[in-house]
Amino acid sequence: MKNYLLLLFFFLVSCSQNNGVYGDGDIEVEEEVDVIDDNKLDSNEELPFTCSDRKLSNISAISAGGKHTCVLFSYGKVRCWGWNDNGQLGGEPKIYDWIVDVEGISSKVLGISAGDRHTCAVLDNGGLQCWGWNKYGQLGDGSNTDRNTPVDVTGLNSEVKEVSTGVWHTCAVDSNGSLECWGDNYFGELGNGTNTNSSAPVEVNGLTESVTAVSTGWAHTCALFSSGGVKCWGWNNSGQLGDGTNTDKNIPVEVSGLSSGVFGISAGDFHTCALLATGGMKCWGKNNYGQLGNGNNENQNVPVEVEGLSSGVSAISAGGNHTCALLNSGGVKCWGWNKYGQLGDGSNVNKNVPVEVVGLSSGVNAISSGGAHTCAVLEGGYAKCWGNNDKFQLGSAELGDFQNMPAEICD
């Protein structure tokens, strides 16, 4: 019956691929066109979706990509769901899919990162494997061929500790605190002083201290250093590098006012956020939907404080055009673009200040913001997702086109 319903749903919805900002043509960015009646969306008063005893369990991490989602289980396996046109779920490409096992990973997985249309996994042997879209070499296997099964990233200098997947490029931090990137380099997002693409890892230039974290956006990259400082490079059309200019950079530049005191970073499509050691937050870059959370919709090329979050934040995640924060209390707040309910506040109205996610005032261990959906790992190893579901990135066809409140992930 489940398969029959999926086939029926597939027949009734449009099967055409997205030709907007996630298209696979030349580099081109288009403004999102809102064709949905917001008043109709706001009238959604259904209770959050639950799946009783079929809840997916033993989840230790979750990563929300452009239109797909992957989870890492406590026993080191990975499963994914959602859009699979380039094999980013780790299986035969198709537009829609159910939750699938990623086959062919060569060792136990310690960490995952879902990009726009590719995915990578950090292995317990220090290796790194990636799969999915590879037009710009973002899988790092020395080719530009899409892969629907995991392939090794070639030529890494040392064991990988962390990976971050963007739209067209990927970066990894190794055990020595060095940083390497690969894929598209049109805007200098690889940070090696050139604008030439690379299908194999290249070292980021001018890094004189150890890198502790990296985050990749649409076409920019930011790194956190052992000193607590932050540097960014790549596309800077909206000020997402935070250096007080809107000029692209192909080598790292300091983020204004953040030479120390930073605990975490997260790059969205065209904005970036930093978690401060004080538990506060600052964001910079594009702000057309209020994704900086400072109470207005004006772009900022230097960091600004997120309203109402001067302390008490334990983790952050910047998505396509929205941002979320995990609080010390275990609660979650989000802000920015909300066309598909990705803020989880029960509405589809954009917010330029943080709002509480319905039903998640406590009990959350981790968060991840995707292109237009958001997910959270809960205490007990369960997960919930909300927002856009046009490619089943929330884990089920039963959820409809969107959910503006957290819905349980079912097995």
Structure description:
The protein has a single domain, classed as Methylamine Dehydrogenase, Chain H (7 Propeller). Strand 18 and strand 19 form a beta hairpin. It is globular and about 50 Å long. The chain has 411 residues and is mainly β. The strands form seven sheets. It has a four-stranded antiparallel β-sheet, with no helix packed on it. Strands 5-6-7-8 form a four-stranded antiparallel β-sheet, with no helix packed on it.
Tally of contiguous helical segments: 2
Shape: globular
> How far is the first residue's CA from the last residue's CA?
16 Å
CATH architecture: 7 Propeller
Helix content: under 10%
Oligomer: single chain
Low-confidence stretches: 1-45
Mean of residue pLDDT values: 89
- Strand content is 35-45%
Strand order of the largest sheet: 1-2-3-4
In short:
4% of the residues lie in helices and 39% in strands. It is mostly beta strands. The chain has a single domain (59-408), classed as Methylamine Dehydrogenase, Chain H (7 Propeller).
Question: How is this fold's topology laid out?
Answer:
Elements: H1 2-12, H2 38-42, E1 59-64, E2 68-73, E3 78-82, E4 100-101, E5 109-114, E6 118-123, E7 128-132, E8 147-152, E9 160-165, E10 169-174, E11 179-183, E12 198-203, E13 211-216, E14 220-225, E15 230-234, E16 249-254, E17 262-267, E18 271-276, E19 281-285, E20 300-305, E21 313-318, E22 322-327, E23 332-336, E24 351-356, E25 364-369, E26 373-378, E27 383-388, E28 402-408
Antiparallel strand pairs: 1-2, 2-3, 3-4, 5-6, 6-7, 7-8, 9-10, 10-11, 11-12, 13-14, 14-15, 15-16, 17-18, 18-19, 19-20, 21-22, 22-23, 23-24, 25-26, 26-27, 27-28
